[in-house]
Each structure stands twice: as structure tokens, then as C-alpha cells.
Amino acid sequence: MKAYQIDDFGGPEVFRQSEVERPTAGPGEVLVRVVATSVNPVDCKLRGGSDRFDLTPPAVLGYDVSGIVEAVGAGVERFEAGDAVFYTPTLDAQGAYAEYHAEHASIVAHKPASLSHEEAAALPLAGSTAWQALFDRALLQAGQTALVYGTGGVGMLAVQLAHAAGAEVIAVSSPALTEQTAEAGASRVIDYKSEDVAEVMQSAGVQAEVVFDTVGGDVLERSAAVAAPFADLVTIVNTAAPPAGPLMRLNASAHFLMMQRRGATMRSLARMAERGLLRPVVADVLPLAEVAEAHRRLEAGGVPGKLVLRV
């Protein structure tokens, strides 16, 4: 089958089209014909050789899938050939920048009929991350205030999910995404370039029960000034704990999230999409042959949504 793989770590230029062996559906697995995949920051980190992940070239990257079940392995009962499915593949060397992908059925879900394959391919990894941050880690509840730092792929979905859950959402975003972020459900969008988050929230008399950091840097440290007592602060980018004193005085908790691949999370996202409460923002759809260009654009920044690759 055709795939785009890397034979060594490096810049986007390391991608090359290859003929690799088509996978098969082992016990408990489904074989999926990939219709669309998308590009995530983790793809760029893996391609560049980040030591945070254990990956050795040659490797096929790509960790979102929307496609059609081609075959099922022994013991699979939830799916059958012809089903439209979506999921985020296991983070290994057999990713989805390819015509076919095999994955354990336990982390796969039926694709929402309300989404195209291109839209569905933009949802699994980013959506699962946002869901687990808000609901599995922070236990977000209706009536609370959620402060979301960053409105990229994960952050924009987090705004939609928090709004759908009945929370008041305040988002820290770039000026170019203000309108889009408000449409996603944010009641207040703070321009990170010209406004101070603490000043804006304190002047409005608002504290956040949930803070979600998709940006990094000193966000967690600064969030103590705007967090409510017993707040939950979740980060997907920071690995260093913030100073304990300010959080201790608030009885606040800091959580470090590495997204887990779960079929239950995918089914929850599918239900939200079917009800019209969740829709990924697709910035552009490119052919798989332009995977290197998609990586260049993502790393350059400023992409207003997800970059999707049509296989």
C-alpha cells in the first residue's frame, strides 16, 4: 500500500512516498481504509525526534483516522466491514499517513453521520484531549467557569465542550480568532497580545473553577491569580509543577494530562457531534501527498483550525 514515511528524524522534507506492507486485522482489531487523517503538533514532535516519545524510524506518522472498516479480526463484534469509523491511533510507528491502518477495536468508534470524513478526521486526538482534560481530570460541571488558554485544535474544541456542558467559558486567544472563539461558545475572549488575563477577570469579579492550559510557559503559575478556591488546573504542555504556595492557599489542584486512547471517549465525542454540540474547525484539506506542506504550515503557526489530509 502507499504510505508517507520518515526514514530519519528531521524537518518536513524527510517525508517520502513508500510502498509498505498492508496491515491485517489481528485478533480484536479492525482494518480500516483511511479516507482522511489530520496533522497534530505531536506529529511534528515525533518527526523532529522529540525524546519525549519512543519512536524509531522508519515510521509512518499520523494519529487521527476517519475511514471505512475493510475487515475485522477474531472476537470483534461491535464493527463489521463497511462501517464508517473514527479514532486516534496508538502512538507508534504504524500511523495513519497511509491507505490502510489496523487498530484495536476497543479504541474505535462509529463516525458521526453528521460529520464528513474530513471533519471527523480533525476530531479524535484533539477532541479526546479536550474531553479528558475537562471531564475526566477537572470534573467540569454546569454553572462553573472554565478558563481556556489557547484556541488551537484542542482549545477550540474545549471551548465547545465546556459551553455544551453548561459552563461559562472564558478563552484566551489571538485577535484573529476572536470571532471564531465567541461563536464556539466563549462568553468572553481575552486578547493575549493586548490584555492581561488577571486584570480582565479581576475587574469583572470572575474566578475560574477550571483552568485548561494548552499554551505552556508560566500559565499555571499565573493562573493562581484567577482561580477559584478548590479549582482544578489542567495542562497538556507543562511538565514542571507550578509553585505550590499559591495553589495550596486556594486548595487548588494541578493536573498533568497525557491523553489516553479510549473507545468510551470517542463515543462521547460522537454523541456530542450528532447532537450538533461539537464540530471541529477545519482550516484546510490537502491531499496526503502534501503532508510535508501541512507540517510546514502547522509549525509556522497561525492556522485557524485543523489541517486535514485526504487519503
Tell me about this structure.
The protein starts with a strand and ends with a strand. The model has no long low-confidence stretch (mean pLDDT 94). It has 311 residues and is an alpha/beta fold. It is globular and about 60 Å long. It folds into 2 domains: 2-123 and 280-310, Medium-chain alcohol dehydrogenases, catalytic domain (Quinone Oxidoreductase, Chain A, domain 1); 127-256, Rossmann fold (3-Layer(aba) Sandwich), CATH 3.40.50.720. Helix content is 28%, strand content 28%. 48% of the residues are buried. It contains 10 helices and 16 strands.
Coarse morphology: globular
Query: Tell me about the biggest sheet?
Result: 7 strands, mixed
Give the amount of beta strand, in percent.
25-35%
What is the total tally of β strands? 16
What's the helix and strand layout?
Blueprint: E1 2-6, E2 15-19, E3 29-39, H1 41-48, E4 59-60, E5 65-72, E6 84-87, E7 100-104, E8 109-110, H2 117-121, H3 124-137, E9 145-149, H4 153-164, E10 168-173, H5 178-184, E11 188-191, H6 197-204, E12 208-213, H7 219-223, E13 227-235, H8 244-250, E14 253-256, H9 263-274, E15 282-287, H10 291-300, E16 306-310
Parallel strand pairs: 9-10, 9-12, 10-11, 12-13, 13-14, 15-16
Antiparallel strand pairs: 1-2, 1-4, 3-5, 3-7, 3-16, 5-6, 6-8
Helix pairs in contact: 3-4
